[in-house]
Amino acid sequence: MSMGDRLLPPHEALEIILRHVRPLPVERVPLEEAGDRVLAEPLIADQDLPPFPAATMDGFAVIAGDVSPWREIIGEQFAGSQTSVEVTPGTAVRITTGAPLPPGADAVVPVENTELRDDHVVIHQEQVEVGENVRPVGADLRRDQVLVEAGTPIGPAEIGLLASLGKVEVPVFQRPRVSVLSTGDELVDPAQEPGPGQIRDSNRFSLVLAARRAGADVVWSGRGPDDPAALRRLLEERIAASDIVLTSGGVSVGDKDFVKEILDDLGTVHFRRLFMKPGKPLNFATVGDTLVFGLPGNPVSALVGFEVFVNAALRVMAGRRDVQPRPVPVVLTHDVQSGDRLEFQRGLVWADESGVLHARNTGPQASARLLSLVGANAFLLIPPREAPYRAGERVMAVIRGPIGPAPETPAE
Ligand code: AMP
Ligand code: MG
Description:
The protein has helices at 10-19, 156-164, 203-213, 228-240, 259-266, 299-317, and strands at 26-30, 43-44, 54-55, 59-62, 71-77, 91-95, 107-110, 114-117, 120-123, 134-135, 146-148, 169-173, 177-183, 187-188, 199-200, 217-224, 244-248, 268-273, 276-277, 281-287, 290-295, 328-332, 342-351, 357-361, 378-382, 394-399. It is of the alpha/beta class. The chain starts with 9 loop residues before the first helix and ends in a 13-residue tail after the last strand.
C-alpha cells in the first residue's frame, strides 16, 4: 500500500502541501491597483508624519503661557498653506484643523472656548497647556519606522499609508493563476434544464468565487466529461497555464473516477485520501511548479477542501504571512455525534456578554447539502470518539466569518 492510500490526517496533508509551495515573484503595480494585493516589501517611513506641527481643532493658535486678557487676531492659518505671521504675546492666529501651527505659537484653543470681540479674541479657558490640540511632528509615524510588514494584504489603512508616503508604485506578490474544472457526465450548465439523471454544475461557481476571494486570478473555468482522454487534454492545457488547478469530482473509487490516474501519469500525486469528513477523497498532485487539487464532487466537500487546503496554498503563493487560521475553543450548545474521521461540521459561533464563544452546527451535515455552509461562520472540529460530545463541552473551531449575536431560532 503506497502512502497515498492511507487516510492522512488533515494537518499532515497541510504540511505536505506547504512543502510544495513557494511565494510567487514580485511585481510592481500602481497605487490605484494595490488594494487587496499582498505587500512584498516592508513599508518603511521615509519621513515624519505629520511633517509639521498641526492643529487638531478649529480655533486659535496662541502662546500657551500668554496671560493677556484678550488677544488681537493678526492672521489666519488654513490647512493647505503656511502663513509667515508670527504669534507674539497678546496676539492669536485663527487656525483650522490640519493646518500648520504658525511661528511663535505652541498651542491651539478650540473655537468653542473662545469669544470674539471686534478683532479680538477672549479665551474662556482656565489654563492653556503647551502643545494642547497640536499634533507634533512625527506623532503619527516616525521616519525609519516599519509600518507594514511584507506579506500583509493591503487594506484601506495600508493603502492610506502607502498614499501618505507617496508610494505610487507598490511592490506586491503576483497573484496565483487558478483554473477551475468541474468533471462529471451528469453536469449541465446552470442555464440548462437538467435531463434525467443530470444536475447543474454548482462547484465551478463556488470554487471560482472562493478562489477570487482568496486573492487568486481565476484565468479559466469550465466543465469536462468523465472521459480519460478528454480530461487529460484539458488538464494538461490548464496545468501549463496555471499555478493552481482545481478540479472537482472524479476522485472517488467509482468506475468513472479518472482524475487520480491522469494526475499520477502527468506528475506526482502526494496524497489522495484524508482522515476527514467531509472530503475524504482529495487528491493533491504537483506537475512541475503547478499544484493540482482534485477536490471531491460533493459541493460541501469541495468547498471545505478548498478552505482547509487550497486557501493555505494560495496564501503562501500570494506571499501572505498568515497562512492558517488558529482554531479557538467554543462551547457546544447541543449534543454532537462524532463520526469515524475528523469532522469539519459547519457551525454558527456567537459570543455571550462575557466573551465566551458558543457554538451549534447548521443542521444536517450531509456533504451534498450546500445549505449547511450558508450562515456558517465556523468549522467545528469534531474528532472521532466513542461517546457523543455533550452540550456544554468544549471543542475547537476554525472561525471563517464575523461573529455576531446569538441565533434567535433554536438548533435543528
Ligand atoms: P464524484 O466525486 O464525481 O463521485 O461526485 C460526487 C457527487 O458530487 C455526485 O453526486 C456528483 O453528482 C456531485 N457533483 C460532482 N461534481 C459536481 C458539480 N460540479 N456540481 C455539483 N455537484 C457535483
Ligand atoms: Mg463524478
